[in-house]
Specification:
single chain; six-stranded mixed sheet; four-stranded parallel sheet; 2 helices
């Protein structure tokens, strides 16, 4: 991947983090190559940890609500540490299905899918998939309840 693309992505992500208008934040993130649905709300200070050369590593569905200071990690490794040769490296796309809600300060780790209508509690660490309509909390996140939608839920 070109240096220019990586630099562009780095700058756009930095601007998006604290963009004054939430709609502008979403536009900047789309320009980074992330797939973001309609009627999405992303609060201040969203951190996306990734390899800048990656593409198609983040999908956010329609009507998703992301609270302040959420961290989405699509790639994690020990950089130049001497343990790099034998330490676990985690890398995988994150998919957040429509109508999900991510609480303040939660961390979503690589390769996780958040199901439709799921709720992730504040400061939770999600290391595995969350089924649709489940409420998860904790470190690591565990299901505490399953939501019962009304008749109008499709």
């Amino acid at each position: 991947m070109s240096f220019a693309w990586r630099l562009r992505k780095k700058v756009l992500k930095r601007w998006a983090r604290n963009a004054f208008f939430p709609h502008f934040r979403i536009t900047l993130l789309r320009w980074c190559g992330f797939t973001i649905g309609d009627e999405v709300y992303i609060a201040d200070d969203l951190i996306i940890v990734e390899e800048l050369a990656d593409r198609n590593n983040l999908t956010i569905g329609d009507r998703v609500s992301i609270a302040p200071r959420v961290t989405l990690v699509t790639s994690s490794h020990p950089n130049d540490s001497k343990i790099r040769g034998f330490a676990p490296v985690a890398r995988g796309p994150i998919v957040i299905e429509p109508d999900a809600w991510l609480g303040a300060g939660c961390v979503i780790l690589p390769g996780v899918r958040i199901g439709r209508g799921a709720v992730v509690g504040a400061n939770s660490v999600v290391s595995s998939d969350v089924p649709p309509l489940h409420v998860v909390v904790g470190q690591p996140a565990r299901t505490v309840r399953e939501l019962q939608p009304g008749e109008d839920w499709q």
